Amino acid sequence: MDKSRVKDALVRQVEADVRAAQGNVAQEDSAAKLDQDSSFSVDDQSQAAEAGDLGGLLEGREQRQAGILSAIEKLDFGPRSEVGPGAIIGFDGDRYVVGVVAAAFECDGATYEGISADAPIYAAIEGLHAGDAFSFAGRDHQIDFVS
């Protein structure tokens, strides 16, 4: 596994999420504007207000995604022998990038997800090495690899 390729795939996914959020914000902001030279009903005003509220929520999503992108760029993806931010790990047949929140993404035919350092499972796996066992949510697991 080439960690730089995994990082690049993760960055591409988050950048796409940021662009999608930006497009959604622009669309909702446009829907929230009423032509002041035209007459409009109370229903038009209500729909415009709802679109404005949704636009505000989508801006929050855009800012969160931009924050995730920044966190990814700050991670050191150098070689690791123990679980910590910047490590790529596997257990139970799944693969994870440690140190960031990330939805599932593909790289070189494998699926990865993110585990943030403040996720509850992180406390159970921090500092572990390949072959180490841990328990989480009443289940036993084993670290398959750390990279």
* Rg calc: 21 Å
SS class: alpha+beta
Per DSSP E runs of 2 or more residues, the count of β-strands stands at 6
Give the percentage of residues in beta strands: 15-25%
Helicity range of the residues? 40-55%
How do the SSEs run, as a string of H and E?
HHEEEEHEE
Count of DSSP H/I helices: 3
The major sheet is characterized as: 6 strands, mixed
- Name the overall outline: globular
The overall average pLDDT, rounded, is 82
Describe this structure in words.
This protein is an alpha+beta fold and 147 residues long. The protein is 47% helix and 20% strand. It has a six-stranded mixed sheet. Helix 1 runs antiparallel to helix 2 (42-74). The mean pLDDT is 82.
List keywords for this structure.
six-stranded mixed beta sheet; alpha+beta; 47% helix; 147 residues; 20% strand; 3 helices
Task: Please write out the topology.
Elements: H1 3-32, H2 42-74, E1 88-91, E2 94-98, E3 105-107, E4 110-115, H3 120-125, E5 133-136, E6 139-146
Helix pairs in contact: 1-2
How would you sum up this structure in a few lines?
The protein has 147 residues and is an alpha+beta fold. 47% of the residues lie in helices and 20% in strands.
